[in-house]
Amino acid sequence: MTQLSGRDRQRLQARCCPFCSLPLIEGPTGGRSQNFYCSNRVDCLNGFNLTFYNGELIFQQHIGTISDAQFRRWDKDRKWVKQ
Questions:
Q1: pLDDT tens sequence across 14-66
Q2: What value, to the nearest 5°, has the Cα angle with vertex 60 and ends 58 and 66?
Q3: How far apart are CA 6 and CA 28, in angstroms?
Q4: Do 22 and 30 form a contact (C-beta atoms < 8 A)?
Q5: Contact 57, 51 (CB under 8 A)
Q6: In Å, how far are 15, 47, 57, 72 from 11, measured between CA atoms?
Q7: Distance separating alpha carbons of residues 80 and 57, to the nearest angstrom
């Protein structure tokens, strides 16, 4: 995901998935970046590596599909959507 539309970038800036618009759950951090996982565990399953500086998104990387097991490690508030 190197070329983002303005709408996709706005969704990531708001910590929402650019594919389904549902909220992203914070995952592990490393350096200045942090992984975020889509809360839609039915249809989406996507993860992103994001870097924010002064509240602005300055780097984004789509890291692919995230397993339920990996997602549950970081979903402490049980925000995931699965039916």
A1: 999 999 999 998 988 888 999 999 988 888 989 999 999 999 999 999 999 98
A2: 150
A3: 26
A4: no
A5: yes
A6: 6, 14, 10, 23
A7: 23
